[in-house]
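Cont'd.
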Amino acid sequence: MINERMFGLGDEPSAIRELFSYGLKRKAEIGADKVFDFSIGNPSVPAPEALKRAVLELMEEPPCALHGYTPASGDPAVKQVVADSIRRRFGIEATPGNIYMTAGAAAAIAISLSAVTKPGDEVIVPSPFFPEYGVWIETAGCTRIEVPTLVPSFQLDVEAIEAAITERTSAIIINSPNNPVGAVYTREVLERLADMLERKQVELGHQIFIVCDEPYREITYGCEVPYVPCLYANTIVCYSYSKSMSLPGERIGYVYVSDRMTNAHEVSLAVAGAGRALGYICAPVLMQRAIAKCIDEPSNVEAYRENRRLLTEGLSELGYEYVQPDGAFYLWVKAFEDDAQAFSDRAKRFELLLVPSDSFGVGGWVRISYCVAPEVITGAMPGFKALMESYRQE
Amino acid sequence: MINERMFGLGDEPSAIRELFSYGLKRKAEIGADKVFDFSIGNPSVPAPEALKRAVLELMEEPPCALHGYTPASGDPAVKQVVADSIRRRFGIEATPGNIYMTAGAAAAIAISLSAVTKPGDEVIVPSPFFPEYGVWIETAGCTRIEVPTLVPSFQLDVEAIEAAITERTSAIIINSPNNPVGAVYTREVLERLADMLERKQVELGHQIFIVCDEPYREITYGCEVPYVPCLYANTIVCYSYSKSMSLPGERIGYVYVSDRMTNAHEVSLAVAGAGRALGYICAPVLMQRAIAKCIDEPSNVEAYRENRRLLTEGLSELGYEYVQPDGAFYLWVKAFEDDAQAFSDRAKRFELLLVPSDSFGVGGWVRISYCVAPEVITGAMPGFKALMESYRQE
């Protein structure tokens, strides 16, 4: 009598988690320094010192008020700080009423999709894509429509997206800087996307929302990350402090619904309603207040930049093909055979843990998370060499 | 094109939240000490000093490990501590595999209902009941079947529950100590419920789960709170530290699935799957670890006991009728007219904020939250006297 879908989701092996578990076991067997785990996206840069100071300061406040419920959308003072920061950084109007604090980007996306779609709708997902998008689209009762991005730039294929839009399309999820490929969508491509969507909205007579998944916004290597609500009114931003402040386990982020949306008030109410429906009461309050106290703390991107250099130079020299990442902390590397799972399995023989691209909806690649200690990258190079040679010998 | 159900849930005024907001406004108008706000269940007892010490200690640990993702079901070490505590306190087997850490009891219940029901199933709810149960039952695609509890004991009406069970019944939610009435279900009534459900399961050929909502377990005034998994194998415990440790805004709790359940492994997987489906990644990690460090810290019930005494003695003297609460921090008081909303509205004239029972699915009563400063109770007594007299004069 239990729910088959939920059982399936719980029972389904996640390639990323399986690889991570395998790595822990293998490290126990042969030593932690002999296994090169590039499987997960846990930030390797510590949370900022300012965050620690903020928590310690907060813990001196009266506990009943500090740990009490906030309104469902968050502490009004925190929402004010977040709104001010958006206004200041992106030059777009934002008030506390536009903000709904969430337990991270996952909650933000699950809530937003349930808020702006109806069962039976279609949601477009450019591929490769973060696998959980599919789960949350299904929770909203919608169908996932995958549209490949352009190889080798991995920019959006606006024409293909247009061709995929039907009268049932209610949203498209975009993620830039992108997990898993590290691409950052250019202003030019986002403007073309916006123009096309504006046209299709008129043609179809209904809204098409962009759900903008932005946990990697601060992790970039010099390029611009345009703020999508400035380009397209019907954008819902799903932000997280998981990567920018290295707090993935704390579950803190927000939804931003811009007033440029004609029905912003209704959409905000639907977001609040979806939060209720999915069992959220309020975002964890200590972390709400802590991030508000260090909202302008810059992310430490230098460690990731150095890792990117070490990894790309090393792999270049060995003759690997990859996508030069403009953001996030993932490298998308061409497998030496079409079967990415087989390539990932063979990499394990050389103690390299690489996530096969099948997890992201495409074949023939692996994802390398380079949010690791630099020694993991340098130590892995002999393994990468041997892996390549094992294919040459065939 | 937005989701009508979610819009409705966001737009729907919650009587409790409305009353609370009205109270804040009114306090600003006439002074905080002149308004007697009995609307919400925010603990008035501070979080234990041990919790603060735990957070301060944790903040000295290396930040990457401290704030990183835990497995979806929680930090294994935390789950071990929780399982050990269950085994020790209730004499029932419990291992980390039986525990799934959650963002509070709300997440635990929403997840559990989605895990063990299918769309079209029925979920029984003894009334009066916490209004969000209805929301989460609807999210799971199920129908809420209300069965009144027995007046004046507000114990479960086992015969009426039996009569309400159909071949579609997959779960019953019980909440003891109870919000809103303060009743604690006796061992005798729970044993009768268990026997009846065992019989009905055989008769119908499928499982019927008890989803046991337990945030008030530690807030009792001397009576036993039987541990339901010891009485009925197919029990899912949804626990929260919101009230016992005064951490409602932090969102920390767990689901416990006992191995006495024949399909415990499958149910645990379905719980994990439902967590994924609803957008949960892991329970907030700092609070996971903090509660593990002070798991045996006793709840400070004395303040609530004293409030209960002040309130019940005061109202008795004035001639109010109420249910003597054995647990939680709510008093269920008979309104002087059938229309609870009208009674609550009239109470406002005397600056008394009382939640009408309509919010809990029944008419003719109000709920008084006595998790307040004692001065609020003593200060409110002239208002309660005047409210009563206003009805006598009619």
